């Protein structure tokens, strides 16, 4: 009977890719292993996963996907995406149990690796006596914040959104309470309850795998490993095995023939600012016009991925947005006046390929952790413009701790960013002493990433220790 591990990712494309990359990495250490991935079909848009799954299936015989039955969510569930995800996975537990039992008939299941949104599956793993590990797609710093949340909760009666203070979390710079991950800002919200539950369950796992590397976040990795982030309980073993990055040809886009790469070929070295905000990074029409005006005034070369604004129809809030009409969304004459130094791409661009192109010298990003790692590994400095989830927290980390980004500053009232701020930050990133300092730091972190993933590097050692932790059991 073959040895197998089960991976249980959240269905969002970024979480799925990171989990699959973990499976592929484990196969380099344990080639005879069989990797089984449980796929959930959610009732909301998570990005196009089918082409990616088909690509992985066609190229990796040791990885197989098991699609779980579709779940119907009750109308009473909160419309917040994070709350929907937790409820989806709670209702999925019977199907996860059935899948594990079925897999066990032909394979010896040595461990299950779960996304933190899939925390309800811990009880299934315990019932079947399968070691359960968490896989954190965010940073080690985010992990520290979640570990520390019960301590914060006990020592204040107010919601984080109502606290005008900096939080002192071991291993981290001072974190403004309002910059903590969005779902935990309001302790009266259902999402807070879900994430608080994750915080209490993390220490019960067999170990926690994080998509980072020790030299990127050394202070917080040490604080977690020393038990400082769980003051009153057990800290499970920590395995920093990153950076895990997928190539663009696995995400479903036609990379090789994408027009933006041809356009980049004609641009000077390190001259182009790339603006891309992830699959859920949607702006209002008003904000898109401000970005356009700022880019035009900056005089910098740019490659900008534009998506349609979010729908005002609440029944369509979880559907993929339609293709953008650039003539309607952008200022009149903008495309014509900037055509010599700028290119606007609709909806999608091959981000990894773009970041690694020699013409790209800066990246305006929504601060998703996958994007941050991709930029670091490409040696591209960033402007941090957070939009949702844990991204404001990431901005603090990127600017204050890692020194790999300049901050985009928003209006305090509505988080709107003016054209003047866009112009200022783009110019600063590409042509200033501050921008050059960030660029030099990013190149150092890139070198450290290469070392971590090389033979004998910290991430390779952590991977070996991870495999040993379940094979010796």
Shape: globular
Number of E-state strands: 15
Helix content class: 40-55%
| Proportion of residues in extended strands | 15-25%
Number of helices: 18
The spatial strand order of the largest sheet comes to 3-2-1-4-5-8-9
Helical/strand content category: alpha/beta
| Gyration radius over CA | 22 Å
Note poorly predicted spans. none
Q: What does the largest sheet look like? A: 7 strands, parallel
What is the terminal-to-terminal distance? 17 Å
Chain-averaged pLDDT: 92
Folded structure, characterized:
- It is built from 18 helices and 15 strands.
- It has helices at residues 13-29, 50-59, 81-91, 93-104, 121-127, 140-154, 190-201, 218-225, 259-265, 285-298, 326-329, 334-337, 351-355, 369-378, 391-401, 419-430, 433-453, 458-471; strands spanning 2-8, 34-39, 63-67, 107-115, 132-136, 166-167, 175-176, 207-210, 238-240, 272-276, 301-306, 342-346, 360-365, 382-384, 405-407.
- The chain has a 7-stranded parallel beta sheet with strand order 3-2-1-4-5-8-9, sandwiched between helices. It has a 6-stranded parallel beta sheet with strand order 12-11-10-13-14-15, sandwiched between helices.
- Helix 10 crosses helix 16 and helix 14 (369-378) packs across helix 17.
- The longest helix has 21 residues, at 433-453.
């Amino acid at each position: 009977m073959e040895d197998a591990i089960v991976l249980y990712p959240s269905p969002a494309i970024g979480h799925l890719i990171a989990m699959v990359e973990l499976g592929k990495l484990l196969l380099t250490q344990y080639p005879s292993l069989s990797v089984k991935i449980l796929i959930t079909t959610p009732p909301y848009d998570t990005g196009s996963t089918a082409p990616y799954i088909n690509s992985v299936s066609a190229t990796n015989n040791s990885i197989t996907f098991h699609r779980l039955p579709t779940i119907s969510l009750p109308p009473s569930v909160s419309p917040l995406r994070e709350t929907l995800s937790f409820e989806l996975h709670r209702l999925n537990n019977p199907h996860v149990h059935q899948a594990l039992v079925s897999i066990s008939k032909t394979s010896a299941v040595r461990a299950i690796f779960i996304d933190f949104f899939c925390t309800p599956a811990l009880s299934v793993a315990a019932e079947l006596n399968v070691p359960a590990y968490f896989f954190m797609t965010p940073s080690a710093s985010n992990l520290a914040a979640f570990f520390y949340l019960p301590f914060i909760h006990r020592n204040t009666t107010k919601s984080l959104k109502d606290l005008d203070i900096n939080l002192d979390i071991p291993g981290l710079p001072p974190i403004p309470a309002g910059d903590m991950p969005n779902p935990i800002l309001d302790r009266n919200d259902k999402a807070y309850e879900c994430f608080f539950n994750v915080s209490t369950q993390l220490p019960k796992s067999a170990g926690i795998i994080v998509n980072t590397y020790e030299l990127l976040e050394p202070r917080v990795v040490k604080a977690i490993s020393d038990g400082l982030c769980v003051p009153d309980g057990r800290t499970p073993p920590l395995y920093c095995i990153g950076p895990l990055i997928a190539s663009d040809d696995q995400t479903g886009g036609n990379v090789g023939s994408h027009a933006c790469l041809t356009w980049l070929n004609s641009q000077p070295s390190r001259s182009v600012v790339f603006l891309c905000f992830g699959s859920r990074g949607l702006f209002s029409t008003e904000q898109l016009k401000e970005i356009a005006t700022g880019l035009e005034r900056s005089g910098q070369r740019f490659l900008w991925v534009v998506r349609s604004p979010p729908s005002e129809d609440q029944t369509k809030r979880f559907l993929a947005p339609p293709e953008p009409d650039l003539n309607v969304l952008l200022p009149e004459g903008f495309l014509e006046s900037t055509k010599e130094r700028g290119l606007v791409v609709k909806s999608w661009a091959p981000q990894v390929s773009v970041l690694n192109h020699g013409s790209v010298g800066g990246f305006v990003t929504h601060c998703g952790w996958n994007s941050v790692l991709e930029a670091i590994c490409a040696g591209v400095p960033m402007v941090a413009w957070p939009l949702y989830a844990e991204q404001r927290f990431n901005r603090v980390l990127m600017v204050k701790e890692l020194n790999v980004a300049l901050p985009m500053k928003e209006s305090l009232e509505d988080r709107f960013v003016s054209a003047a701020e866009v112009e200022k930050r783009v110019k600063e990133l590409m042509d200033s002493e501050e921008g050059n300092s960030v660029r030099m730091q990013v190149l150092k972190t890139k070198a450290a990433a290469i070392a971590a993933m090389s033979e004998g590097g910290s991430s390779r050692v952590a991977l070996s220790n991870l495999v040993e932790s379940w094979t010796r059991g």
